[in-house]
Amino acid sequence: MANITVLDQDTINQIAAGEVIERPASVVKELLENAIDAGSTAVTIETKEGGLSLVRVTDNGCGIPAGEIPLAFLRHSTSKIRSAADLMTVSSLGFRGEALSSIAAVCQVELITKPQEALTGACYSIEGGQEKSLKEVGAPDGTTFLVRNLFYNTPARRKFLKAPATEGGYIADLAEKMALSHPEVSIRLIQNGSNKLFTTGNGSLKDLIYMIYGRDISANTLEVQADSPLMQVSGYIGKPVIARGNRAYENYFINGRYIRSRLISKAIEDAYKPFMMLHKYPFTVLHLTIEPELLDVNVHPTKMELRFKQEDQIYKALYQALSDALSGKEFIPEVSAGKEESSKPVSSQQSKERPPEPFERKRMEEIQQRQTLQMIREYAAPYGSQPARKCSRPHIASSSESPSSIKSPASQKQKETTERLPRPEQERPACAQGQKAEQLDLFDGKLLSEQARSRHQLIGQLFDTYWLIQYEDKLFILDQHAAHEKVLYERTMKSLGQKEILSQQVSPPAIIALNAAEETVLKQYRDAFSSLGFELEYFGGKEYAISAVPMNLFGLDTKALFLEILDSLGEDTGKASSDLILAKVASMSCKAAVKGKHTMSRQEADALIGELLTLDNPYACPHGRPTLISMSRYELEKKFKRIV
């Protein structure tokens, strides 16, 4: 066995750097955090070859005095804290004093900096942890870091990096996250000479969401503002229609720090559960403000993780804030007309056309209305009153065709005929061509409201599964299975919450065998099971007999039901166990819902709709599937080419 020795300083620095600097994005993160801590209002990031050959970060912050520059590159030297007690009240992004020393240990670094009060700046060079030069130079206020040749002295680590394009993608993603965490700071990202990101720094989070994620996502967000004794929540959350298949769009920041937290993610996803399908994740950009004393940020060198002192309370506060923001909204997905004849090439002129501005929409609607009325007039005329047509289809004007180019009879005759035709009862804003359908939000005259009940027109059943309902200028399609699931779930939750629980005897009793972990969970929550209508008796060995189940669950697989609830209790969910059992029992009751391909009478369908509209959130079943979708009259008329 080799003798124990103390490692040399270079080896120590490289080992420490391995914890902080994993890839070029790590360099950008540390320098960007330092720039924000320095009070910068504008930061420019330039990279080449994915940051492998060059990372340049320039800011207009407070700068570093020339006499403190060598000290800044020593391990555990920082201006953010002074003692261990300060770790309990950290408000800055950086505080460990490891960033610059770690970067300098594996890169060639040049620093140019000038405080505002200094007459001249300083230029400092350090490579592999070894100082090269420190000289006086002319420089603007602020700091510029030039980091070259990452891992030049540790080629083994360089082999584990990915392609430059991939590493550049990590940097771009990080820059977007940092911009969202500090909308008051203007951030510019230049990669290989091309501008990839430029934020204004005007402090508007909504503007940033539009700039980074685009119009479709920005238009489908809800603002969140909530205060509780433990935390303040602000930002934007997405409607279920823009949900994604992974957590990449879950953005949350605690005291301005970009982090990842299982607790925060779970609170967000649990709040969305009634509105979202399984394996879908919401879009969020949330700023959480929590007292530093309730956080431990000194968990990992990358500062991407933290611990909470009151996890349950923080979970509940965030869950409640998001639940309140989502409640009361009418989330009925709207079916768009879609792209027709997508195989047709689009001309360059058409592809450059922009959607109409708001003040143009009224004019376009009037043009479309005249075209529609003209076609009605022509086809409503008695047979033989019009000259024979060469083509069996009417001429439909294209979007690039002006109104004057539409073939029609004399304008005076058209005017007289048009005036005789009935006008629509209310005007509807025209939709820009090519605009994607957005999820319906809370609007005047909700479909599912007592006031609208008398105006529902139940058309009939389709495919023995769906019910068609006309309401004002929209067609609503109701999934009878999903709607019945929702009604049964809420009915069961209500009865369980009010302790109106009846048990049904199981004969013969169901015998289940439990392992040690399951037995421990059962002993812990046995009273909760009993209060919900389960009757269990010890049967010997590791077996238990279930002699009764809640009335609404009778007929289901007793063993599978009980084990599913038990497994859920064994997970560390952050949710109160009694609430979890309640929700699971109610969820299992959905299995009794009417299935698709089942003929329902109009009276049954009408009663189902009547009960559905009494619910707080009738728009999705317990598994997240929509109970209703809609199609506007406008979209339907586009399908029939009555509007082009």
From TrEMBL:
Arranged from A to Z, the UniProt key words for this protein are:
DNA damage, DNA repair
GO molecular-function term, one example from the UniProt record: ATP-dependent DNA damage sensor activity
**UniProt region (Disordered), positions on chain:** 335-363, 384-436
Boundaries of each MutL C-terminal dimerisation domain copy? 458-600
Give a yes or no for keyword DNA damage in this entry.
yes
Q: What Gene3D superfamilies does the annotation carry?
A: 3.30.230.10, Histidine kinase-like ATPase, C-terminal domain (3.30.565.10), MutL, C-terminal domain, dimerisation subdomain (3.30.1540.20), MutL, C-terminal domain, regulatory subdomain (3.30.1370.100)
Cellular component aspect of the GO annotation: mismatch repair complex
Q: Which residues are in the DNA mismatch repair protein S5 domain?
A: 209-327
User: What superkingdom does the record give?
Assistant: Bacteria
Q: Which N-terminal stretch is annotated as signal sequence?
A: none
Ranges of Basic and acidic residues compositional bias? Answer: 351-363, 413-428
**Which residue intervals are annotated with compositional bias (Low complexity) in the record?**
396-412
The biological process GO terms on file are: mismatch repair
Instruction: Tell me which stretches of the chain form a coiled coil.
Output: none
Query: What protein family does this chain belong to?
Result: Belongs to the DNA mismatch repair MutL/HexB family.
Q: Summarize the protein's role.
A: This protein is involved in the repair of mismatches in DNA. It is required for dam-dependent methyl-directed DNA mismatch repair. May act as a 'molecular matchmaker', a protein that promotes the formation of a stable complex between two or more DNA-binding proteins in an ATP-dependent manner without itself being part of a final effector complex.
**NCBIfam families from the UniProt entry:** mutl
Q: What is this protein called?
A: DNA mismatch repair protein MutL
Q: Which organism is it from?
A: Cuneatibacter caecimuris
